[in-house]
Structure formats: C-alpha cells, structure tokens
Amino acid sequence: LEARGLHFRPHFWLSDEWFCPDGVPGMAIPFYLAHPRLCRLEQSQMLEVEGGTREWCLKILRHETGHAIENAYRLRRRRRRQELFGRTSKPYPEYYAPRPYSKSFVLHLDAWYSQSHPDEDFAETFAVWLGPEPEWRTRYAGWPALRKLEYMGELMKELAGQPPLVVSRRKPDLLSRLRRTLRDHYRIKRRHYGLDHPDFYDRDLKRLFSDAPEHAGKPTASGFVSRIRREVRRRVSRWTGEYQYTIDQVLADIVARCRELNLRVAGPEDEAKLEFITLLTVQTMNYLASGRHRVAL
Fold first, then answer.
1. What is the CA radius of gyration of the chain?
2. Whether residue 179 is found in the same domain as residue 197
3. What is the pTM (predicted TM-score) of this model?
4. Which of 15, 43, 154, 182 could make an S-S bridge to 28, C-beta 3.0–4.6 Å?
5. What pLDDT is recorded for position 160?
C-alpha cells in the first residue's frame, strides 16, 4: 500500500474465519492462525489450513484489503465501478457456477472466486493490481479483465495521498465475544463444506472396478482407494480449486460404496489410480459446473 502511495491501512482482529464486513475498513483473521496448535487442529478437522502458508496468507490479505479499501472510500457508489464489476446489491449466492475459461475475470484465489459476486470481482482485481504491473499486463493482455485492472490503477492513483472517508474501527464477531465451542464450530463448518455424492457413482465405479466372481481374490477397491486417498485428494484439490475436505467427503462415500458393492481392482493398480484420479476430477468439476460449488470466503 505504501509503495502505491495509498495512505489507507486496514485494521485487524481475530474471529472464526476470514472476512471483511460491509462498511468496515478492516478484516477478521481466523483464530487458528494465532497459534501452531490451533493450525494443527484446523488441519485435522478440515484437512487444510486456509491461509496457513505465507504465500496463501498474503493472497487472502490482499483480497480482503480490496474489500476494506472499497469500504474505506465508499467506492461501490461510483458509476464506472458498477458498470465494470456489477452492483453490490446483487444477492450473494450460497453456491456459484464458475466458467473456468472466462477471460472477463482475473485469477487470484482458487475456484475462480472472482466470478462469485461483483464485490469479490472487485477485491480479486485489486489483489492482482497490487502486484507488479508488468506481470499482470503480460498475463491479462487481450483479456476483457485487463480493462478492470486498468480502471483499478486509475482509481487508486486518484486515491493516492487521500485520507479514508470511513475511519471506523469496529470489530464485528470479535473472537472474545463469540460463545460457540470448538466442537460446535467445526461441526457446523464441516457440514457446510460437506458434499452429497451423485447418483451416478455406482455406474462409474463399476466401470473402473469389478464385482465379477473371478476377481474375488483381487485387492478390494475400498482398500485401494483408502491407500491412495491422501494423494488423490491433494491432486484433485490443486486442479479444481475445491476444498480438500469437500473432496474427502466424496472419497468417503466412494470407499463406503465400493465396500457395499464388494468391488475389486481387476487390473494393474498404477492404471487404476490414474483412471480413478480422472473419475474423481470429473465428478468434482461436475459439481463446480452444476452451480452447487460452495463460496469459500
């Protein structure tokens, strides 16, 4: 911010998740980042720690700063902002259906998050703009999203040296005021990121594995999937941008269904693993494309 000539400085507080409340020029940081033991708890419950690495944390901080600076200078009221990004009054969806190949949006956080809402599009564009200009000009050359980045540059140049219009230091949902137990917190969070398996699992699993009597002596499909579970979960999460916890719910359903159907690995396990990763990726992408993908932040 200083390098860009911006006087604005957001304030921070601990809460139960990452967020920037409407009208507040600051952001909440999840409690688990305050201590390594809490990070390990988050990892054990959710299979990943959102913002748990320096790179990931900085990405989210830049994103949330985009929300905070928009609040600080009341930028949502500007006509050009509404024309490029859309209106803030558009309801936030519980789920959104991203278009992975769209060039109208920047790519910053995972899962094409800029497509979820106009406010997220603005925050993601700010986060990218805050990086080195030669990099984003090269990456987004020829993209409609470049117009948004150039507008962001014009807007921030106008704000350089200007004091914020909103100076509130409110801290909604401050950790010390929350009364939910860790047990309840993780029960609700795990349920939110859970996923019901589609009806067509059986068909796909029977194509990949076998229930034929002649393969009764072969390794069980449930055991096979359990052995490769961690590896495929990480791979599919990286490729799709979906939460590892969500993918693990699919895997848990698959393991259970393989056991119920008494499926076996009939062919070479190396080939079966590659085919299974493809199957799981397609299933995950089907959920992303169906409009049931969960908004992460």
1. 22
2. no
3. 0.74
4. 15
5. 96
